[in-house]
Amino acid sequence: MEQRIHLMMTRRRKKTKTKLMRNLIGVKKMISETQKEVLTKQGYRVIGSHSGVKMCRWTKSMLRGRGGCYKHTFYGIDSHRCMEMTPSMACANKCVFCWRHHKNPVGKEWRWEMDDPKSIIDTALEKHLDMIKQNRGLPGLKEERFQEGMKPRHCALSLVGEPIIYPEINKFLSMLHSKGISSFLVTNAQFPDKIQDLIPVTQLYISVDAATPESLKIVDRPLFADYWERFLGSIDALSKKGQRTVFRMTLVKGYNMEELKNYAELIRRGKPDFIEIKGVTFAGGKRNPITMKNVPWHHEVIKFTQEVVKEVGNDEYEIACEHEHSCCMLIANTKKFKKDGKWNTWIDFDKFIELQASGKEFTSADYIAPTPDWAVFGHQMRGFDPAEFNFRLMKQQEAAAAAGTEVEDTTTYSNAGC
């Protein structure tokens, strides 16, 4: 007992000392000069003391007419008009599959200097447009796409870190929407109160990287001791949102692909509009515990997705779309997004901007748009927009022709969800 009391007193003295040091030194910046240098080398444009923006490879791809990201296929965004950024590079998790190599800070609360939302957005747009301009001489660049890219219409708040902990996140989102820019916000499901207080966004994601306390601790490596309670609280908070909601599941072989019944329970609890299921992206790195052995093939992702739909049951969810290139599948709520046998997973972005500006209550059903046939699961395009030039397929066909063979489709499709 005396040892426990001594330990508690020691911890209290350390916390008191830390608070005193903060008061003496002052509130520090989130990103140190060393971190800023490392992040800059990785292609980030650091904004102020805690934000960042980076050019997505799909933005560059669509500028050249070589295809869009899975959000283009699933929801109709223009990838060349999308800005990927975050107002907070700090995160409360250290996920094993993080493709940012953990070069960003970690933290359980906001304890840094804070930049105002207007300066963050203005600087982010300035730096993003500078990166767009740098593509001017890119081979195959389409002038029309370039001009459109200079007028961003979407913002993916999923670059790195946990954007929802930025204290002025609601002001930030309101300013973003006032510029006619849609918002796709991803949170790591550790701040249920922040989700509850969040204003309507175009599409709100929570990362569901595992389905049991044990596996979530292994996969996400959360900082919070009560991480599972926070995780479930975030799912409950998401279930009460009226706008489009998404469970984002990243599959890592050997880590989180064996808990189908548990995933189904979480889906029934959170009632998301959509479930995105994506194979993990191998990011390399000497200290990365993930190897190519942990990366599932697309046919394995399809099978897992089909099994999830079957496990949830009740015909409430079906497979709606796929994006083979990203090894990604989309499950959608049939009651909300399937009308007369046709999917409506795309977004009417102008309608969303109009609705959020009105100040009136609205739901996800108020800004839906039809999903084109080529985006639907089972179509021969497998999520690739036929209006784009399939550069990868051309290279495969050239290699096959040189070898005297043909490019074959080895994927076995199911009628489920078509």
- Strand tally: 14
Proportion of residues in extended strands = 5-15%
Radius of gyration, CA atoms, in whole angstroms:
22 Å
Proportion of helical residues: 25-40%
Largest sheet: 10 strands, mixed
Structural class: alpha/beta
From the N-terminal CA to the C-terminal CA, the straight-line distance is 64 Å
The chain-level mean pLDDT equals: 88
Write the element-wise H/E pattern from the N-terminal end onward.
Answer: HHEEHHEHHEHEHEHHEHEHEEHEEEHEH
Strand order of the largest sheet: 1-2-3-4-5-6-7-8-10-9
Uncertain residue segments: 14-25, 409-418
- Taken from the alpha-carbon principal axes, the silhouette is globular
Number of discrete helical segments: 15
Fill in the keyword field for this structure.
single chain; 418 residues; alpha/beta; ten-stranded mixed beta sheet; two-stranded antiparallel ribbon; 15 helices; 15% strand; globular; disordered C terminus
Q: Care to describe what's here?
A:
With 418 residues, the protein is an alpha/beta fold. It has helices spanning 2-25, 33-41, 57-63, 70-75, 117-133, 143-149, 169-178, 192-197, 213-220, 227-239, 260-270, 298-312, 334-337, 349-358, 391-403, and strands at 45-47, 51-54, 82-86, 154-157, 182-187, 203-207, 244-251, 274-279, 317-323, 328-333, 338-339, 342-343, 346-347, 368-369. The strands form three sheets. A ten-stranded mixed β-sheet has the order 1-2-3-4-5-6-7-8-10-9. Strands 11-12 form a two-stranded antiparallel sheet. Strands 13-14 form a two-stranded antiparallel ribbon. The N and C termini lie far apart (64 Å).
